[in-house]
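Section 3.1 - Work completed
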Amino acid sequence: MKKPNVCFIIEKTTDIRFINGLKDYFNVTILARKRKDYTIVPWQISDEVKTRIFRCNRLLYPLVLFIWIIKNGFGFDVFIVNSDTLAGVSVNLAKYFLQKPMVAIIQKPTIEYLYARYCKGHIGAIQYFLLHNIIRLLIMWNIYHFDLSIVVSCYIKSKLSRYSKREIKVIPLYGIDNVFKPLPSDKKRELREKLNIPLGKYVIFISSRISPEKGIYSFLKAMKLLIKEGIKDIILLNLSGQYKDFVKLAQKFALKEFIISRPAIIPYNLPPYYQSVDLCIQPSLYEGLGLSPLEALACGTPVIVSHAGGLKESTIHMVHSLHFKPGDAEDLAEKIRYAYYHRKKMKQMAEVGKRWVREKYDSKMVFNKLETAVKQLLK
């Protein structure tokens, strides 16, 4: 069977690994809105992928999408959208004209992320009340109308299954690529020198952006507690699109001297950083799945995650990683303290986690599942 023609609609952003995975299994055309900082992703997209970029604001984008799909959609076999809100509405309305399968890829708990913004004071009570109800209605309507909803974790499935009797498949896209693998221990020093990461320090990697749902404040509070009690050979390594903001926030906690913060790099170049550090932490208050800890485990690096959302199911406490109570800086500090003083035990758990990741989250396996699910719709 020839590759199906897929139209992939991006609501806000996506990951280059998802685009590359799609192109290996489908003939892909991407629809996206022009952003200030970059167009689709801040990395080079393969010439095999066609793109159509719309120059419009966020509110006008769904209408522009709808019109374009109605005019040009008959050449596609299936539409995939990474949205359960406005862009999803455009796709589902267009379905009544095109009679083509519409698939949603849902990777985050939208309402929970909104609640995190409210709790941090980013939006007021009235705005939260209005947005909560509007978004909830959009999600309900979309999930009912999508031919197939694919979610990255059982956690998100539990949130959405109440809205529709249609099948919701759990496929942890985009999975973990084979470039994430361990490095021989005798090469670690050489790698740190190459990456300009201090030798003789306990280096903790965190790639989370500074967003209300990511729990960065509790992470920095935990680090402050540990440093106050005398553990001062810790270095925090942050690679993110908000690396400058991370430094400014660390300054408020008097942690600047303990920070190495650098721009985000192409995901395929991340393995050396995971391989060179001692610990990876994801402190999210809410999370759809959380791929960074899985990437770290695939590289044999110990992990600590919050016991929240999809992170609760992606690893098992004291088997693959350590879990802590979301937002609890003292609990997180306790878990970091344990990892710091029990490095051999943490490496043993990471070894078990490495096998777990390969069995459940291998990228080739998850894209095979996506291909099977899409082709079943086309029969």
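Second construct:
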Amino acid sequence: MPTDPGELLAQQLKQLRQEYLRDSTERVAELRRLRSRLLENPAAALADLRHALHRLAGSGGSYGFPDVSTRSREGEHLAMRLEAAGAAPGPADLAAIDQCIDGVDSAFAAARVTLGG
């Protein structure tokens, strides 16, 4: 156990980051569940998806994973544009949402490799 306060803080931060990444699979699964609801209830599902992506955009940055934040923010903006349009997402929209979710998943995977978690 480190005795230097700086080392102790660094170790604690690394542990928090690893815990965050351990939950990343479930976070991405939640995004995919929300995406699957888009055909049933587009308005509610888009709002829920936007909120989930917003949370990830903030938490990704807070935990030091800027790519997670960037990819999530892109998805959040897409969901906002679709909400503003007021129509059910079409096939191209659904493909773009899938691409955003895949991007978030890839960013989490890269972070796990980088952190060794």
